[in-house]
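R.M. (postdoc): so does anyone remember the format we settled on? I'll just put the structure tokens first.
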């Protein structure tokens, strides 16, 4: 399988929305939200292509708190047929490299406490739990993770 990570273009909006819906169901970002993120000046959006087919994508926003810039991973997902092939790991590595090139030294994200697949991915990629987010996803709790780059 040839894997390429590229900048996500707004032209892929429909394809990315389908993957987002498949991955997150009721909690998926809407087309309007994804469209906004793909064109936001402060966002980095990457797409993974496996043998030229879109297999997943990742979007991070650059935010600021207490005078410190940090990356915030807003969404990461891989279509079910392409999972466990290292695609999410590779997308995380690529986005972290881009953030580092912008002199950003930390990345934050939120994940459902019961999303064990994603938690394993993040743990393996060096993210650490820094807080619990009560009822962050409706009735479900979330975890706040962070990685120093
Ligand atoms: C979570 C998700 C992005 C992982 O994508 P992926 O491309 O399959 O992940 P990778 O192949 O890079 O996996 C890296 C590691 O994470 C862990 N992992 C990922 N999926 C797993 C699974 N289904 N079961 C057990 N461990 C898993 C493993 O340790 C894996 O390494 P290994 O395959 O060498 O054992 C994907 O399952 C997905 O899109 N899920 C739905 C959306 C979602 O939950 N996104 C995260 C929201 S915070």
């Amino acid at each position: 399988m040839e894997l390429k990570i590229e900048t996500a273009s707004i032209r892929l909006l429909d394809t990315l929305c389908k993957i987002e819906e498949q991955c997150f169901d009721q909690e998926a970002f809407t087309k309007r939200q994804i469209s906004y993120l793909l064109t936001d000046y402060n966002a980095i959006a990457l797409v993974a292509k496996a043998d030229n087919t879109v297999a997943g994508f990742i979007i991070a926003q650059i935010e600021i708190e207490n005078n410190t810039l940090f990356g915030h991973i807003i969404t990461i997902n891989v279509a079910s047929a392409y999972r466990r092939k290292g695609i999410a790991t590779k997308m995380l590595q690529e986005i972290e490299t881009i953030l580092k090139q912008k002199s950003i030294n930390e990345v934050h994200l939120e994940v459902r406490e019961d999303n064990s697949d994603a938690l394993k991915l993040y743990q393996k990629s060096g993210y650490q739990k820094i807080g619990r987010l009560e009822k962050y996803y409706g009735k479900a709790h979330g975890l706040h993770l962070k990685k120093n780059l």
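R.M.: ...and that's the designed sequence above, right after the tokens. Also worth knowing: The chain has one domain: 3-148. The CA atoms of residues 27 and 138 lie 10 Å apart.
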